[in-house]
Amino acid sequence: MGAICPKGKISKARRDKRRAQSWKISTPTLVACGKCGELMRPHYVCKSCGTYNKRAVINMEMAK
Ligand SMILES: [Zn+2]
């Protein structure tokens, strides 16, 4: 009881599928920016207008 023992052999395909990272979503989810409407990643600063939560966080004039 309590022995850590594999219930059965995991096939090469199943093992490799687990190790493979290809199942991860390639395209991140995008939402429209509340200010400029540009597609941006949620919980990220908008790269188009430099705002987060409708508040300027990056000075876009300085970034240029
Ligand atoms: Zn924006």
Characterize the structure shown:
The protein has 64 residues and is of the alpha+beta class. The chain is elongated and about 65 Å long. The strands form 2 sheets. A two-stranded antiparallel ribbon has the order 1-2. A two-stranded antiparallel sheet has the order 3-4. The chain has a domain at 25-63. The protein has 2 helices and 4 strands. The site of zinc ion has 8 residues, from loops.
Ions, cofactors and other ligands present here are: zinc ion
Shape type: elongated
Order of helices and strands: HEEEEH
For the biggest β-sheet, the strand order reads 1-2
The number of helical runs is 2
The helicity comes to 10-25%
Number of strands: 4
For the termini, the CA-CA separation is 65 Å
The average pLDDT value, as a whole number, equals 84
Q: What is the alpha-carbon Rg in Å?
A: 22 Å
As residue ranges, the low-confidence spans are none
- Structural category is alpha+beta
Descriptive keywords:
alpha+beta, single chain, two-stranded antiparallel sheet, binds zinc ion, 19% helix, 64 residues, two-stranded antiparallel ribbon
